[in-house]
Amino acid sequence: MQYELFIGLRYTRAKRRNHFISFISLISMAGIALGVAALITVLSVMNGFQKEVRARILSVVAHVQITGLRGELAQWERVAAAARRNPEVLAAAPYVSGQAMLVNGATARGALVRGIDPALEARVAEVATKVIAGRLDALVPGEFGILLGADLARSLGVHLGERITVIAPQGLVTPAGVVPRLRSFRVVGEFQVGHYEYDSGLALMHIADAQRLFQLGDAVSGVRLKLADLFESRRVARELYRDLGGEILISDWTRSHANFFRAVEIEKTMMFIILMLIVAVAAFNVVSTLVMAVTDKRSDIAILRTLGASPASIMQVFVVQGVVIGVLGTLLGVAGGIALALNIDVVVPFLERLLRMQFLSKEVYFISELPSDLHAADVVAITCVALFLSLVATIYPSWRAARVRPAEALRYE
Question: Which pLDDT belongs to residue 123?
Answer without folding.
Answer: 85
